[in-house]
Amino acid sequence: MRLVYFASLREHIGKSEEELDLPDSLRTIAELIDWLASRDEFYAAAFAKGITRAAIDKKHAKPEALIVGAREIAFFPPMTGG
């Protein structure tokens, strides 16, 4: 699966995207984030704040969204504005 990282997530992880074979046990965005955070200290730092937005195949998705069948998942920090 193609994973894409934006902004501070990209800075912590050190890459803007990667192709990974995910374990079959991962079913949701939240499970994927937990799994990524357990990979090493760079991923752990990227996802440490616990507030990460995601998009599945370019559509915004909630943490409980199913990732089965997705081609791409993008992660980005929460947006603020005024």
Could you explain how this protein is built, in words?
By secondary structure, this protein is α+β, with helices and mostly antiparallel strands. The chain has one domain (2-76): Beta-grasp domain (Ubiquitin-like (UB roll), Roll). It contains three helices and five strands, in the order E-H-E-H-H-E-E-E. A five-stranded mixed β-sheet has the order 2-1-5-3-4. Strand 3 and strand 4 (59-61) form a beta hairpin. The radius of gyration is 12 Å and the shape is globular. The N and C termini lie far apart (35 Å). The mean pLDDT is 93.
Short characterization:
27% of the residues lie in helices and 23% in strands. The protein is of the alpha+beta class and 82 residues long. The protein has a single domain (2-76), classed as Ubiquitin-like (UB roll) (Roll).
Topology (SSEs and partners):
Blueprint: E1 2-5, H1 7-13, E2 17-19, H2 29-37, H3 41-46, E3 53-56, E4 59-61, E5 72-76
Parallel strand pairs: 1-5
Antiparallel strand pairs: 1-2, 3-4, 3-5
